[in-house]
Write a structure and sequence with these properties.
It is a single chain. This protein has three helices and eight strands. By secondary structure, the chain is of the alpha/beta class. The chain has one domain: Hypothetical Protein Mth938, Chain: A, CATH 3.40.1230.10. Strands 5-4-8-6-7 form a five-stranded mixed beta sheet, sandwiched between helices. It has a three-stranded antiparallel beta sheet with strand order 1-2-3, covered by helices on one side. It starts with 12 loop residues before the first strand and ends with a strand.
């Protein structure tokens, strides 16, 4: 899926397809955390059912107001205790398919929101 909106500066997700995401000129084939100004390539979380707050520490360190968690080709919810812990830290979290998270990320950075996308690439 190719995206065309480009009203924001910094990292813009250009496209997403099975197995890869294009951020700016970079093509990424692994799970990634992305903010407007940073790309974290070495994010290697466990299975969704085993996620903990420590797995989201790199995203939380970027001080976002919201984390978009892209769970691959289908929406999958992690443990409610994890979601509660993230929200208690003062950060909102939205869970969606990775393609939807990519589109939403671009919209939110275009609105100059403090957003981080944690994206699972299948």
């Amino acid at each position: 899926m190719k995206f065309t909106a480009d009203s924001a500066s910094g990292n813009v997700i250009r496209s997403y397809s099975k197995g890869e995401i294009k951020i700016g000129a970079d093509i990424i084939h692994n799970n990634v955390i992305v903010s407007q100004n940073q790309i974290i390539l070495d994010w290697d979380p466990p299975a969704i059912s085993e996620l903990s707050i420590a797995d989201f520490a790199p995203a939380l360190e970027l001080k976002p107001e919201i984390i978009l968690f892209g769970t691959g080709a289908r929406q999958q919810f992690p443990n409610i205790a994890l979601l509660t812990e993230i929200m208690r830290s003062g950060t909102a979290i939205e869970i969606m398919e990775t393609s939807a998270a990519c589109r939403t990320f671009n919209i939110l950075i275009g609105e100059f929101r403090a957003v981080v996308a944690a994206l699972l690439i299948e």
